[in-house]
Amino acid sequence: MSLAFADPAAASRPVHVVASDAFAAWLAARPEPVRMWLSETGFEAGLGEVRLLPAPDGTIAAAVLGSGTARARARSRFGLARGLSALPAGDWHLEGDLSPEAADEAVLGWLLSTYAFTRYRSSSTPPKARLKLPEGCDGARLLAMAEAEMLTRDLINTPASDLGPQELEAAFLALGDRFGAESVVIRGDRLLERNLPMIHAVGRASPREPRLMELRWGERGPRVTLVGKGVCFDTGGLDIKPSAGMLLMKKDMGGAATVMGLAQMIMALDLPVRLRVLVPAVENAISGTAMRPRDILTSRKGLTVEVNNTDAEGRLILADALALADEEEADLIVSMATLTGAARVAVGPDLAPFYTDDDGLAAALQAAAGPACDPVWRLPFWDPYEPLIEPGIADLDNAPSGGFAGSITAALFLRRFVENPRYMHFDIYGHTPSDAPARPKGGVGQGARAILTALPQMLGL
């Protein structure tokens, strides 16, 4: 989807942004017809509430958009986007007492609100309003964020029938080609030749070959490595999921989609980093060659893993990819995955939980999350739980029994494959369960904008 702001030189209609507590004073300064119109229509300047204001000739002269109360704004992300997305087609500009942060959020929310997943629809999308970039906003950065988010959403929303490992590879290679990156793909039995045995074990049951995709971009600056889980569909394997548990499993490549979106932002903004992206892509299917419960796999790192649940496959493919990532020096390694239901029970669908042993990285990320409109929450690498992932018969257990601290034990499992102390792991959901401002129901990126915003502090850029 191509995004653009309205031409700054073109005529446009104003959108008056007014807070609830300032509405009475603002209204008192309006002409009587405007006061009567807003009174008759019950406008109270609630967050996202919008009214079109007519001109004497019956055309639309302007709009008024409520920014609500401070409490309402604190309880809602992209609150203004609800009203901005309801504006009729045409060119508009914002007026009112907006802080730079509020203006950025309004513009980003408007951009994200233009998203629609239309691949399988026969009806066309009606024209949408265009917004002029407010003074002081970094339009290139906001566009890069929004366009990357739309890539992530499109990938997650596409059903597995049309987005298996091969199609994810095509999107990955297209991303690299767009920015002149170097890309390499290892497929099928060559994974065994290249010592990536757990990626092969998870994906070998499917006729759609498993693979490891790698992208490199940039020739200066700190080294940043991104690793994303690319399970294009997850049946659960021989520990098969119930049918209800499979309904959202097209989104199990949400980690891959999100790191691809983050990589697009970094490359589009030409950040001074040396970027490496690794995506293991598989379909966790069922056949005679599927891995079995209690199989013991030997990982790239040499650690053995007892498979106590074939539905805990994402950490297996990530483990090999992380071991490969860790073989090169990096200033930052980030893994992202739709890994555990336990994370969603802990923090719900809106927060992106993350793990790191580096307090500086955590502080930088948490400080960046607010300005990026991308909330995150730190969970602990809790060392006393390490024995839970040690089954005795092998070095590691991929699915400890008992059900306690499932997100933490999965994160501890992954940490065993990374020696680099500057490592962060995200256990994201990748899905909005119901329509929200700037976030329609369906696939969504989480954590990527916060990471992008934190990179200067994390890396000293």
From TrEMBL:
Q: Looking at the keywords, is Hydrolase present?
A: yes
- Keywords linked to the UniProt accession: Aminopeptidase, Hydrolase, Manganese, Protease
Recorded protein name is Leucyl aminopeptidase
Family indicated by similarity: Belongs to the peptidase M17 family.
Cross-referenced Pfam families, in alphabetical order? Peptidase_M17 (PF00883), Peptidase_M17_N_1 (PF21337)
The record's annotation in SUPFAM superfamilies points to:
Macro domain-like (SSF52949), Zn-dependent exopeptidases (SSF53187)
InterPro entries, per database record: Leucine_aapep/pepB, Macro_dom-like, Peptidase_M17_C, Peptidase_M17_N_1
GO terms for cellular component: cytoplasm
Every copy of the Cytosol aminopeptidase domain together lies at 309-316
Instruction: Tell me the leader sequence span.
Output: none
Does the keyword Ligase feature in the UniProt annotation?
no
Q: Which Gene3D superfamilies match?
A: Leucine Aminopeptidase, subunit E, domain 1 (3.40.220.10), Zn peptidases (3.40.630.10)
- Which GO MF terms are attached to this record? manganese ion binding; metalloaminopeptidase activity
Please give a single GO biological process term from the UniProt record. Answer: proteolysis
